[in-house]
Write a structure and sequence with these properties.
Layout lengths: L12 H18 L2 E6 L5 H13 L3 E4 L2 H11 L12 E5 L6 H13 L3 E7 L2 E4 H8 L4 H44 L10
Helix pairs in contact: 1-3, 4-5
Length: 194
């Protein structure tokens, strides 16, 4: 019996690259915020740890070839992103929270000093690394919404107190008048029992 040797399946590299470019293009078009970071010097375990933290924050990270990323940036309408795509680059994409990629990555960099933010995209505009760091300092969307609701609620509470004050004063005045009448009038005689 002859040993069967399988020929490795030929992978169509052009088609695979085209799919990668298409995927990056869709992510760039579909996100409000993207961050580019240089991951030079990181180990595999550090990258896995970072990916877990990013997933927890609703952020996706891709490591892609720069030529493919440049093609995707051109296709997505961000040609200004091309010059930033040099060296080992990780692309981070936001989910719902605009500041999440910048915030999670900045926290990781402060703790580990392994990555460097190169640039980012915010609502279709190229932003520098300093601006990405400033974006990281913004509170999350939930915190901003709760602050807004608190600011809106405070005047309503004050208005309710102001409107309630005259009614409370009127009720206390009536109570005082009743108490004064009770003190000045002698108690009524009790009806006689038959």
């Amino acid at each position: 019996m002859a040993a069967s040797t399988k020929k490795p399946e030929k992978v169509d590299k052009k088609a695979q690259k085209a799919l990668t470019v298409q995927e990056i293009t869709e992510r760039l078009k579909g996100t409000s915020t993207a961050v580019l970071a240089d991951y030079r010097g990181m180990t595999v375990s550090q990258m896995q740890e970072l990916r877990q933290k990013l997933r927890g924050g609703g952020v996706e990270m891709m490591v892609v070839k720069n030529t493919l990323a440049r093609r995707a940036a051109e296709a997505a309408g961000y040609p200004a992103l091309g010059p930033e795509l040099t060296g080992p680059i990780a692309m981070l994409f936001a989910g719902d929270d605009v500041s999440a990629p910048a915030r999670v990555l900045t926290e990781y960099i402060r703790a580990n000093r392994k990555m460097a933010i190169k640039a980012g995209l915010l609502e279709g505009q190229l932003i520098k690394s300093e601006t990405v760091t400033e974006l990281a300092d913004l509170p999350s969307r939930e915190v901003l919404i709760s602050r807004l609701l608190g600011a809106m609620q405070a005047p309503l509470g004050s208005l309710a107190s102001v409107l309630q004050a005259p009614l409370s004063k009127f009720a206390r005045t009536l109570d005082a008048v009743r108490a004064a009448k009770d003190q000045t009038q002698p108690p009524a005689p009790a009806p006689a029992a038959a």
